Amino acid sequence: MSSISCSCVADKASEPLICLMGPTAAGKTDTAIALAEAFNAELISVDSALVYRGLAIGAAQVSYPHHLVDIRDPVDVYTAADFVADAIEAAEAARSRGKRTILVGGTMMYFKALIEGLAEMPASDPTLRAEIEADAAARGWPALHRELELIDPATAAQLHPNHSQRIARALEVFRLSGVPMSQWRAASKQSKKAAICVALMPAERQTLHDRIESRFDTMLAQGFVDEVAALYRRGDLHVDLPAIRAVGYRQIWSHLSGECSLAEARDKGIAATRQLAKRQITWLRGWTDLNWVDSAAENAQEQVEFKVRNYLAPPLS
């Protein structure tokens, strides 16, 4: 993975982006709310699950206002390119009201697309490619071609349902980046945006693992199974859709489908969330000039505010 810079100085005419990122369950939301209050800012969610209506408990939705929450139906496919357009629109609207915006979340591909544009298609990932090929061995390439039709109809239309290599590559590109291959091919290189990027993560990995387990159990207590059941009963949703593939939702969906017990779904959901956190941390380590803060520190919020305040230009007039 190429390094990603968060300190470029292009786009001088506009306010630099304030990006608060980190693995799931790291404590980003509380810090973002404190920042919004301190800097007279509005929050923009950078989360590929929260964009979908009906995904609230399992996506840890909060009551504090965020842009780009509940904006799409779960049957839709929402790409990184969609996010970039929507985030820019939300930021411009906030600025017209005299406010800054703070982007907060854990969908790293969205941050990368917004800051650096959609220029270079991601390199092949052997592990992911092996997973796709194993899926094809179990379900057949025509089934994966149908999945591709949902996320990238333009590319799927050019491929035979058994053209395994090209189907695998198109699915790989989308799963790595959240952007359909057809959009990668059409996109032109954008100028980088000035940004300060702060990463929140507990210094001890076990602390994060414990938080993930505790939060998953809290979600179950809050009615997570009922939330997924409501989606399941619709009849038009399935596990090939990005919304249903979201961590936690897919595992509870499997339970509702009779594939595993609730206890097994819980354990699988926690394990999948920890794997997600691991991937998020890997993305973060590819950033350059990233400001790391131990989210378990007593003064974590104060540290983040200090870093942002030192970076920003004078307040908006």
Q: Brief overview, please?
A:
By secondary structure, the chain is an alpha/beta fold. The chain has helices at residues 28-39, 80-96, 108-116, 126-139, 141-151, 153-156, 164-177, 181-186, 205-221, 224-234, 242-245, 249-256, 262-285, 300-311, and strands spanning 4-5, 17-21, 41-46, 66-67, 100-105, 195-201, 287-288, 291-294.
> How many domains?
2
Question: Strand sequence of the main sheet, in spatial order?
Answer: 4-3-5-2-6-8
Q: What pattern of helices and strands is seen along the backbone?
A: EEHEEHEHHHHHHEHHHHHEEH
CATH class of the largest domain: Alpha Beta
Structural class by helix and strand composition: alpha/beta
How large is the share of residues in beta strands?
5-15%
The Rg value, from CA coordinates, equals 20 Å
Look at the structure and name the CATH superfamily of the largest domain.
P-loop containing nucleotide triphosphate hydrolases
- Described by the principal axes of the CA atoms, the overall outline is globular
Mean pLDDT: 90
Helix content: 40-55%
Number of helices in the DSSP assignment: 14
* CATH architectural name of the largest domain: 3-Layer(aba) Sandwich
Low-confidence segments: 7-13
In CATH, the topology of the largest domain is named: Rossmann fold
Q: How can the largest sheet be summarized?
A: 6 strands, parallel
Q: How many strand segments? A: 8
Distance between the termini: 40 Å
